[in-house]
Specification:
By secondary structure, the chain is of the alpha/beta class. It contains 2 helices and 8 strands; from the N terminus they run E-E-E-H-E-E-E-H-E-E. The protein has helices at residues 39-51, 99-116, and strands spanning 2-15, 18-23, 26-32, 55-56, 62-64, 72-77, 121-123, 131-145.
Length: 146
């Protein structure tokens, strides 16, 4: 499982011009799965994401969690996180989970985030062509693998 996490001031996802998910201050997550991933990885990642201290305190140190700043989460599925470009000119997605596996893990990940985080958890639409807009705060971007 791989997550690209961005600390954002705001973010939203649109499909065919319609906003399907949006947040203010919080975390924007691109989430990808590989075929061998299990719910163990998903549970670990949900715990990790909500407990990260990546928001600034009064001394401008990254000491505050998502809950501390009353932040939100926007989750977008992104199978291309497992695109392999080491050979050739076109990415290979052989390591990416099948849609059947990925949607099950994605939905479980969102459920766990909702259970572990008291604030808003918004999503894109699994498998859809989406337009994403965000304002990265910092910028702060982390790649988390499990």
């Amino acid at each position: 499982m791989r997550v690209v996490l961005q600390r954002v001031r705001e973010a939203h996802v649109t499909i065919e011009g319609k906003v399907v998910g949006e947040i203010g201050l919080g975390q924007f997550l691109l989430v990808g799965f590989k075929q061998s991933d299990t719910t163990d990885q998903v549970e670990w990642m949900a715990d990790k994401v909500v407990s990260l201290r990546i928001f600034q305190d009064d001394a401008s140190k990254m000491n505050r969690t998502l809950a501390d700043v009353d932040g939100s989460i926007l989750v977008v599925s992104q199978f291309t996180l497992y695109g392999d470009v080491r050979k050739g000119r076109r990415p290979s997605f052989i390591d990416a989970a099948t849609p059947e596996t990925a949607i099950r893990l994605y939905e479980r990940f969102v459920q766990l985030l909702e259970a572990r985080h008291p604030g808003k958890v918004a999503t894109g639409e699994f498998g859809a062509m989406m337009d994403v807009s965000l304002t990265n705060d910092g910028p702060v971007t982390l790649v988390i693998d499990r």
